[in-house]
Each structure stands twice: as C-alpha cells, then as structure tokens.
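Sequence design from tokenized structure. All designs in this work follow the same two-part layout: the structure record, then the generated sequence. An example of the structure record is given first.
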C-alpha cells in the first residue's frame, strides 16, 4: 500500500518561505513522476510542479523562479521549496505520485497540507 504524507505547511507573511515535504511509504524511485498540486477555496486543483524519475522538473508559470521541487530517493521524500510567497499562493497543497505499468496509470495522493500567506 503506497501512502504519501505531506508536512511543512503553515502560516507565513508575504515574501516569506516555506518548505513542504512529502514522505512516501514506498520508494520514491518506484514512481514515474511525483509532483505537487494545490487547491484554493472555490477553485480547481492545479499543478504546481513535477519531477520525473530521472530528475527533470516542470513548473506552473505562476511559480517559476520562486518554487523549487526536489527529491531525496534515499529518504523517499519529495520537497517543495517555496520562496517569495504571495497571498495568491494560499491553498491546500497535495503531493502526488504516478506509477505507470504498461497501459495502467495509478495516481496516489497525500492528505494535503494547508499553506496560508498573509498580506
């Protein structure tokens, strides 16, 4: 059973930083891709950043240059370093892991961690 557990959310002032962690019960190397999504009140869940098994990264335009995704396979953990936070970054942040086996794609989600940025 694969489980993802996020931590590191909280309340921060605009311009501040937070680092989110996502601990996987299985090896992060088992995932084809891992990523962070967020959902603000009244809005759809949106992609924030992804990292592939090989370490390639992608970012939403709204966070480029401010957020950085990384992983530590030895610790089975994925991180999201968030700098220069803005009030519009306020949301519940979810960790995601994707495992592809032939034509089967399985998505795994954490429970989410709240990030609140005050102006």
């Amino acid at each position: 059973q694969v489980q993802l557990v996020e931590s590191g959310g909280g309340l921060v002032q605009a311009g501040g930083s937070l680092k989110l962690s996502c601990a996987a019960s299985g090896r992060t190397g088992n995932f084809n891709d891992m990523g962070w999504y967020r959902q603000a009140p009244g809005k759809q869940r949106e992609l924030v950043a992804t990292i592939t098994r090989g370490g390639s990264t992608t970012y939403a335009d709204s966070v480029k240059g401010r957020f950085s995704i990384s992983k530590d396979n030895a610790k089975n953990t994925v991180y999201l370093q968030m700098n220069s936070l803005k009030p519009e970054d306020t949301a519940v942040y979810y960790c995601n892991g994707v495992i592809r086996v032939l034509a089967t794609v399985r998505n795994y989600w954490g429970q989410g961690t709240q990030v609140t940025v005050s102006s």
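The chain is about 0% helix and 55% strand. We note this feature because it recurs in several other targets discussed in the main text.
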